[in-house]
Amino acid sequence: MGSVVIPHLVTGWHVDQAILSEDERLVVIRFGRDWDPDCMRMDEVLYKIADRVKNFAVIYVCDLDQVPDFKQMYELYDPVTLMFFFRNKHMMCDFGTGNNNKLNWVLEDKQELIDIIETIYKGAKKGRGLVVSPKDYSTRYRY
Amino acid sequence: MASRRDFLSQKAPENYVAGLGRGATGFTTRSDLGPARDGPSTEQIQEALAKRAAQLGAAPPTAYGAVDKKKPEQDEEDDERFQDPENEVGLFAYGQYDQADDEADRIYQAVDEKIERRRKRPREAREKEELEEYNRKNPKISEEFAALKRNLATVSDEDWANLPEPGDLTGKNRRSKQNLRQRFYPVPDTVLAGARDSTEFQTSVQDDGGQASADNKDGTMTNFADIGAARDKVLKARLDRAAQMDAGTGSASTIDPKGYLTSLAQTELTSLAADVGDINRVRVLLESVCKTNPKHAPGWIAIARLEELAGKIVSARKVIAQGCEQCPKSEDVWLENIRLNDNHNAKIIAANAIKHNDRSTRLWIEAMKLETDTRAKKRVLRQALDHIPQSVLIWKEAVNLEEDPEDAKLLLAKATEIIPLSVELWLALARLESPENAQAVLNKARKAVPTSYEVWIAAARLQEQIGNANKVNIMNRAIKALVKEGAMLKREEWIAEAEKCEEEGAVLTCGAIIRETLGWSLDEDDDRKEIFKDDAKASIARGRYETARAIYAYALRIFPTSKSLWFAAADLERNYGTKEALWQVLEKAVEACPQSEVLWLQLAREKWAAGEVDDARRVLGKAFNQNPNNEEIWLAAVKLEADAKQVDQARELLATARQEAPTERVWYKSAAYERQLGNTDVALDLVLQGLTSAVVDKKETRFPRSAKLWMMKGQIYEDKGMMPQAREAYSQGTRACPKSVPLWLLAARLEEKAGVTIKARSVLDRARLQNPKNPELWVESVRVELQAKPPNIQQAKILMSKALQECPKSGLLWTENIWKLQPRTQRKPLSLEAIKNVDNDPSLFVTVARIFWSERKLDKAMNWFEKAIVLDSDLGDTWAWYLKFLMQHGTDEKREDVISKCVTSEPKHGEVWQRVRKDPKNAYLSTKEVLLEVMNQLEAKEVIS
């Protein structure tokens, strides 16, 4: 449902333009496939928070089958991947998972996602390239 | 904002490469997913462009190379590497192209191809022409000889076979070939041996000549040892010569200027003679010298020597004869003349010479030497004495020639009459006379030469010989007389004289000299004591013990109550004198200073060491009389009994001591003694008694604050296996004496042994609170961490860094850090840092030595061990490490040396050393046994760590 409302980026050029067009806000792009159940869950959350974060972040979705150009560059092999950009800079975030480049699991807690986006935005405004996520998502303690 | 987001509704440009427009860079987190990429690569872009073009159904757009027409073979040949950098193609290959660009490219290409086609034929023709022209100008060699080669077809097989070898017509290779032909062989040893023997004089007769000749005959047997020995001999001779030269002209501080100059002149002359290379030229030079200045004697001598060197002895004689004519008053010329002539002529020349210089002692002596039989010599000397009666040298020669002592005496008497000021002659005369007459002679001599101290010393020695030394105090008179004459020597000179007397066996005279002169010219104050001590030490260093003894005797007469002097005197006797003398000195010493317990103890120990236990007991009894209730003497007495294995007596003594002189040490020693004997219960009882508090006559008689007693209490419980009691004892003890580090350590170790690391930690923490900046506690804390199970290295490192901040100067901490907490590679740099921080610490030096040892730099290791020992010989661990090192890498003598040095220096400290020494099991071990035990323990420790 969410993927219908969130703007889609249909070519590599659009992706690039989306990233380049924002000067003051964080650009959040969800890479995945609209029909994928994981993506659907993620999109639902994104759709719900989009309005609440609109002052400091803009959210897009991008279908990997439609735009395969970034697959290799950004290692987009997971079903759902959330990436953050600020002023044409790829923002990294230490989630504790070992992969600081992207959020590659489904995060269904809205407040947590807002917190993450806000933290990244704050770090980006301070000129950081890497921020530490407010919560540790390490899977270590799950087992 | 809205305008910028319009892109969503716009169409993407053709041929757009994703990420290119914004210079995106990728990342690699997992290498198994794909290769590392920094954005789209050039290949990727080109590939993308080509794909896009293919989709559009057009040729791939490249700048000016719309269709790459090169064939693959050419591609390989014309690699990118060989591309002209000035003329790069594809510079704009990575830009963005649209269809308009492409069209333009294609049009340009078409034009180019057209022009190419049109110009093709004329160009090809021109190129061909140019090639032909070039070939004509630079023909190939094979083509040049083509005509000649054609003739080769007519050469028959036979002719081929008979072709001559080419000679070396150019001479280019001649030298290298000669070098090949010329070869060098090592000189065989037989030749060397032959060369050696050719200049050797064979002075000894070979008894097994047959065998030797047999050996020599077949020449194959070469004695290499002989060759080596010969070379050594040559080297030795050279070194000797060098040493002599050094001694002669070297930097000795006392140089007789006249003698120095003459010796220089001599060396100049001889070296001149030796170094003259071009004799003819030098001859011309010297002749011109003699011609211009014929009265210059050295010129004549030089020319004569030159002739002699040239082997022309006759002309040398002629020249020197001329020289004698020219300079008849020069002794040197005459002497040279005499030297150059043989005996008969020499005599005539000598007579001539003396005619001209009848007062020259040297010429007379030379003349005397020319005579062969004694009577003739005597005659010459008589004549000489007629002419120069004041010459001591001639008188002496004359006396030497006399075989009969009576004649000699007569001569000397005469001589002393004529030359009364010559002390030498007087002394010679006195030596010849009988003792009684000698006295008279010396008296006369004294009157004649009142300023001569030699005569006085000779008189004193004479008295000693006769045996009157004690009756007549000659030196006393001597000093008075010499003072009156103002000819008193300095103190140092007198001491030197005394030492000379001692060397020649006149011990009493030596003593007398010291007695009379030692205090001379010194102020009457206490500085004298130091001066005397220095004098004695210097004499001991020179090996003149009698002199030193005399000095001490004198000093002790002035300062009879000086303990240090008594110690020094006792030391002298102990090291260089007899046992009896030592006892005597010590007995006198205790008489003089009865309050000095150390002297009493020394005496007792000497007696005891000599096996005279009863005497030792008596000495200690006397010591008690003089110093009632002295703790030291009590304990010495106990030790004496304990060593003599008189258990009951020792116990009794200790009990009395506890009654009479209840000090902390007495209590402790009593308990320790019982513990040594294995009576743990008695010991415990004693300890408990000692720890109760009681005050008698306002004096403490029990010691609840004695750390040692608390320690012993804990240890006894520990030995018995009563851990709770031991713990209780330690905790009480640490409360009573919070400043006692060993007590804390014992408490911590008890916990550690019980396996309660946490408690050990807390004990040490409390200890550190009470005793800040104490390295031993820190080290123990670190060790607790290291020995915990499992070892907590991280915590140990943190503790160590804290410790080093608190005590940066502790060698102990550094040692622990370097050995236990650092990887091997870090040890050396860290030790360097440690040495920078801690200047001089023996345990650190040992650590450095061990590092070197582990790197097998043995010399350096030994060096550092020595340094450590020099720095603090009281540290037993250092000795043990050194010995351990020597066990692996040292010689037997070295080991013995170290052990004996260790025994003499009697080390008392050191971590392991103290542990071993204090162990009740080892109570009766000697220092050497303890040393070996410590060494073994070190080894065991090393295996663990």
TrEMBL record, chain A:
Provenance organism: Capronia epimyces CBS 606.96
Chain segments annotated as transmembrane: none
Main location: nucleus
Role noted for this protein: Essential role in pre-mRNA splicing. Also essential for entry into mitosis (G2/M progression) as well as for chromosome segregation during mitosis.
Subcellular location: Nucleus
GO terms classed as biological process: mRNA splicing, via spliceosome
Superkingdom: Eukaryota
InterPro entries reported for this sequence: Dim1 (IPR004123), Thioredoxin-like_sf (IPR036249)
Keywords: mRNA processing, mRNA splicing, Nucleus
Family: Belongs to the DIM1 family.
GO cellular component, one term: U5 snRNP
Keyword Acetylation part of the UniProt annotation: no
The name this protein goes by in its record: Spliceosomal protein DIB1
From TrEMBL, chain B:
Lineage of producing organism: Eukaryota, Fungi, Dikarya, Ascomycota, Pezizomycotina
Location, primary (coarse class): nucleus
Cell location: Nucleus
Chain segments carrying region Disordered: 18-88, 199-219
TPR repeats (start-end): 842-875
Superkingdom, taxonomy of origin: Eukaryota
Residue ranges of domain PRP1 splicing factor N-terminal in the record: 12-172
Composition-biased stretches (Acidic residues): 74-87
Subunit note: Associated with the spliceosome.
The name this protein goes by in its record: PRP1 splicing factor N-terminal domain-containing protein
GO CC, any one term: U4/U6 x U5 tri-snRNP complex
BP term (GO), one: spliceosomal tri-snRNP complex assembly
Pfam families attached to this UniProt entry: PRP1_N (PF06424), TPR_14 (PF13428), TPR_16 (PF13432), TPR_19 (PF14559)
Coiled coil residues, start to end: 124-151
